[in-house]
């Protein structure tokens, strides 16, 4: 699952480790979320959004069409 | 050791425990199976592992009722289900009880006891399922 966590994190000048400490998970989890290899719970998504001062929609929203394209590419 | 707060690791931990549980169950089944094959049923049921295994099976059956109640269609009334299951349990306990008291070497008291035990053992899951269903229905009604 694609998301914009990495961009949002860089914009507020946080490292993976700092973001992880802020939202109370391990750095590995943040890394997996950024790569799209882990599906975070809504609660964790909200925590991440609070930490990077963005809305859910800015960080996690993906258009349905682009999602389909992604699937087709794979 | 710190308490794990990371949701991903908690999930991972649960998955690990599940694998350990599967291995443990296979081990218990292996030991009991060995006893059954080499020494027969009576020796197997004397093994304390047998009690461990049966308790685990009963607990997991009760816990899985939580899941199956949510999974089943809600249309049927829980009252009807309760009455039907009660009738079946009473019927089975009476039949088994009478058959036992009629068998050679067993008195009427034995029949009454066995029937009563069956009745009580059947009542527990039936009332539990009834409780879960009514609870679920009242939760649905809140919506």
TrEMBL record, chain A:
Residues 5-59 form the HTH cro/C1-type domain. Pfam families: HTH_3 (PF01381). CDD domains: HTH_XRE (cd00093). The keyword DNA-binding applies. Keywords: DNA-binding. The keyword DNA-binding applies. Transmembrane segments: none annotated. Gene3D superfamilies: lambda repressor-like DNA-binding domains. InterPro entries: Cro/C1-type_HTH (IPR001387), Lambda_DNA-bd_dom_sf (IPR010982). This is Helix-turn-helix transcriptional regulator.
From TrEMBL, chain B:
It comes from Halobacillus campisalis. It comes from the Bacteria. Keywords: Membrane, Transmembrane, Transmembrane helix. The chain crosses the membrane at residues 20-37, 49-69, 81-102, 108-131. The keyword Membrane applies. The lineage of its organism: Bacteria, Bacillati, Bacillota, Bacilli, Bacillales. This is Branched-chain amino acid ABC transporter substrate-binding protein.
């Amino acid at each position: 699952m694609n998301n914009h966590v990495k961009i949002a994190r860089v914009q507020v000048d946080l490292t993976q480790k700092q973001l992880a400490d802020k939202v109370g998970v391990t750095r590995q989890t943040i890394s997996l979320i950024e790569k799209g290899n882990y599906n975070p719970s809504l609660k964790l998504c909200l925590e991440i959004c609070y930490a990077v001062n963005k809305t859910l929609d800015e960080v996690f929203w993906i258009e349905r069409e682009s999602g389909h394209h992604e699937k087709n590419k794979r | 050791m710190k308490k794990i707060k990371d949701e991903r690791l908690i999930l991972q931990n649960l998955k690990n425990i599940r694998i350990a549980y599967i291995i443990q169950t296979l081990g218990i089944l292996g030991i009991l199976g060995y006893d059954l094959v080499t020494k027969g049923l009576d020796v197997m049921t004397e093994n304390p592992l047998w009690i461990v295994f049966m308790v685990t099976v009963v607990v997991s059956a009760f816990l899985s009722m939580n899941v199956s109640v949510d999974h089943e269609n809600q249309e049927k009334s829980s009252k009807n289900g309760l009455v039907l299951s009660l009738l079946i349990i009473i019927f089975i306990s009476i039949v088994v009880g009478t058959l036992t008291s009629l068998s050679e070497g067993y008195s009427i008291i034995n029949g009454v006891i066995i029937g009563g035990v069956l009745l009580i053992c059947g009542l527990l899951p039936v009332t539990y399922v009834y409780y879960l269903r009514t609870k679920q229905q009242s939760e649905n009604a809140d919506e």
